[in-house]
Amino acid sequence: MSDSHVTDEATDVFMDHRELLFGLVYNMLGSVADTEDVLQETWLSWSGRGTEGIDNPRAYLVRIAVNQALQRRSVITRRRETYVGPWLPEPLVADDDGAEDPVLRYESVSLAMLVVLESLTPLERAVFVLNEVFRYPHTEIADILDRTPAAVRQLAHRARAHVHARRPLYQAHPRVRREATERFVRAALGGDIAALMEILAPDVTVWADGGGKRKPAGLRPVHGRDNAARLITSYAARRGAQDMDLHYRRVNGDDAAVLFQGDSPYAVMVMDLTPEGDQVSGVYIVTNPDKLTHVYKDDDKAEEEA
């Protein structure tokens, strides 16, 4: 068999599993750029090895990608130590026509959930993503991570207990969530304090991730309805948010708002709602331009892909 045929076969197998690998790694890291780096490393390892003698290419690729992602966590942790202000995951934004990033075709992990996952250890997060999101059994996870099934079960129990303590198991109907999201955005961009106070939950928290590149962005999360309302309205007024182009998009599977300044994305706003869906319990605002490079207006993307 020629080298080119082997390479073609390895490429085909890798591309067949690329969306799965992207979903796994992104949910472990919360960064598209780091995920792409891990997939490149996975591809190099895979193409160098070849497919001969591998009975289960899917399992082999997942093992490489997950363990490469675990190694990448240390790089991300060091980077986070010098990050300016709150850090939020890089949002995955669907197009205006509803076409989603390939990873969103898998079970989506919301931006709010990704923030919770940041508080897990790297191994706990890997086990949670593999087990709770992608439904891998503990025995397979044990093989992937080179741990005993008993150790994996313990990691899964700790991760699940931690996540469920911070995230409600029940979510409101999508239509209710969309209506609440639109009410919040209208009040926020319109500077309507009274409407904001009504839609914000008493213990709401606002995270604004500008990475030190967009101001004003708070250096710490803001807690409480009064503080949140003041921050949001002053932020919108200073940046002239009313004059920006507003698009409602799906972000990590949830309804959200994307603001464009001219043809460039300025902010992605994701609202986490109470279980009943009638109030906003968390606001995640990503303005760091480095995290918005994959966000396009329709015309921009069409020209790029033409």
Commentary on this structure:
The chain has 306 residues and is of the alpha+beta class. 53% of the residues lie in helices and 14% in strands. It is built from eleven helices and six strands. A six-stranded mixed beta sheet has the order 2-1-6-5-4-3. Strand 3 (245-251) and strand 4 (254-261) form a beta hairpin. Helix 1 (3-29) packs antiparallel against helix 2 and helix 5 (122-133) packs across helix 7.
Question: What attributes characterize this protein structure?
Answer:
single chain, six-stranded mixed β-sheet, 6 strands, globular, alpha+beta, 11 helices, disordered C terminus, 14% strand, 306 residues
What layout of secondary structure does this protein have?
Layout: H1 3-29, H2 32-49, H3 57-80, H4 111-117, H5 122-133, H6 138-145, H7 149-166, H8 174-190, H9 193-199, E1 200-209, E2 222-223, H10 225-239, E3 245-251, E4 254-261, E5 264-273, E6 280-286, H11 298-305
Parallel strand pairs: 1-6
Antiparallel strand pairs: 1-2, 3-4, 4-5, 5-6
Short description, anyone?
The protein is of the alpha+beta class and 306 residues long. It is built from eleven helices and six strands.
